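User: Here's a structure from my thesis project, written as structure tokens. My advisor, Dr. K., wants to see whether a designed sequence matches the one we expressed. Can you design one independently, without my sequence as a hint?
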């Protein structure tokens, strides 16, 4: 049977890994796909000296790959937004199937990309965009297709997880660990996407759409980072029997679908609490199967290449099927997506951890608890640390409360003359 010809755009870490896996495992891949998959052309602005591309056609113009009549599938691994979007749309317009690892592109432009792909009867595969080598998209879209998904929660950014793990295990400060993460190559020179939750929100947007059958709505995701977490917070959480993780959480509720990324205290015995270092993990709760856990490397050359090549095999297997007989891009057929709203963060209900600095004088704690009581907020635990200073740290763990009520309570507490600075609030998730 005629080989399927692939064009790879981008020869960086993932592009190089993809080329190597396709070359090294060519026979095994052909046995799985039913025909050979060969790299016809590589488009990259610069060569990767670590990759032996001898014998493979090279070009510095990625759009030449997208319009090459010999190529069946374009693999977009250049990253970013504008050029990547133009490249993918050009490939689709030219009747090429597309495989991408670009979670930002799918989260922010996926709706228009999938619409264009439907019209041209081509596939767009993006397993590598979420959690690297973990086949989480395939698991939800296909393996759990019998289930009504209730919720999912995951550690889906390895950089943030590495930082929080080091803070817990070694008592280090955030800034100190972030510097090391940058030196190790886990974090970029500008770490905003990782530590402020934008990267995780891109991934969660995709998972939420697949889980609940709704359009991609990244602009409605609530996003909060970990840069304000202190080593003291990590220590206090442990004293209370919790660990702090940076989670992406999506849940079906009466108000709509929750779509939120933020730090959270989770019980120390929970599965996700024991995912450390740069590893990723996602827990999915379905009505039939219950909870299932997906764990593995969330980044890296060959773990991500594993997902890219798996997508290539899937595309090759279904090349002769028409669009109505393929697995839908977002798990549900395009005409069956619901317009379920994304719930406002103010409607979310969680327990909360509060840390505040209060003057050590009679009546201060009573004033704080009175404010919480006025908002109907019940207290689970209080820790008041002994200190020789005039200001003492007070840690309060509440029971579940609506976000808006907690916002109002925090505003009132911060207005007390006895309170120094702002109140730190971290949500608590029992999972």
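Assistant: Designed independently from the structure alone:
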């Amino acid at each position: 049977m005629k080989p399927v010809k692939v064009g790879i755009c981008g020869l960086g870490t993932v592009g190089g890994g993809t080329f190597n896996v396709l070359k090294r495992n060519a026979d095994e891949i052909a046995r799985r796909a039913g025909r050979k998959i060969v790299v016809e052309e590589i488009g990259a602005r610069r060569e990767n000296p670590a990759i032996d591309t001898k014998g493979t056609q090279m070009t510095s113009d990625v759009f030449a790959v997208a319009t090459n009549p010999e190529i069946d599938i374009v693999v977009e691994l250049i990253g970013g937004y504008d050029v990547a979007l133009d490249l993918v749309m050009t490939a689709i317009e030219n009747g090429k199937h597309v495989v991408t690892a670009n979670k930002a592109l799918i989260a922010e432009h996926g709706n228009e990309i999938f619409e264009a792909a439907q019209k041209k009867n081509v596939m767009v595969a993006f397993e590598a965009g979420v959690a690297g080598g973990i086949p989480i998209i395939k698991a939800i879209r296909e393996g759990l297709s019998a289930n009504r998904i209730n919720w999912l929660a995951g550690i889906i950014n390895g950089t943030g997880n590495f930082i929080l793990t080091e803070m817990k295990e070694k008592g280090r400060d955030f800034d100190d660990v972030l510097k090391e993460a940058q030196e190790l190559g886990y974090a970029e020179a500008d770490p905003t996407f990782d530590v402020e939750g934008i990267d995780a929100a891109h991934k969660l947007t995709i998972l939420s759409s697949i889980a609940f059958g709704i359009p991609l709505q990244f602009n409605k995701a609530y996003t909060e980072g970990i840069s304000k977490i202190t080593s003291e917070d990590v220590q206090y959480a442990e004293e209370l029997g919790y660990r702090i993780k940076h989670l992406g959480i999506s849940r079906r509720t009466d108000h709509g679908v929750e779509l939120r990324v933020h730090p959270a205290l989770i019980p120390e015995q929970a599965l996700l609490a024991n995912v450390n270092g740069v590893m990723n993990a996602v827990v999915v709760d379905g009505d039939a199967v219950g909870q299932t856990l997906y764990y593995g490397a969330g980044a890296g050359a060959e773990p991500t290449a594993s997902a890219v090549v798996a997508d290539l095999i899937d595309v090759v297997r279904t090349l002769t099927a028409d669009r109505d007989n393929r697995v839908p891009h977002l798990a549900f057929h395009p005409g069956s997506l619901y317009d379920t709203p994304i719930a406002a963060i103010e409607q979310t209900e969680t327990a909360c951890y509060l840390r505040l600095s209060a003057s050590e004088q009679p009546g201060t704690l009573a004033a704080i608890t009175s404010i919480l009581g006025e908002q109907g907020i019940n207290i689970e635990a209080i820790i008041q640390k002994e200190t020789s200073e005039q200001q003492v740290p007070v840690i309060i763990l509440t029971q579940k409360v609506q976000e808006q009520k907690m916002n109002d309570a925090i505003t009132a507490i911060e207005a007390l003359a006895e309170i120094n600075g702002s109140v730190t609030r971290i949500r608590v998730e029992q999972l």
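When you compare it with your expressed construct, this may help: The chain has three domains: 4-133+301-336, 136-297, 349-428.
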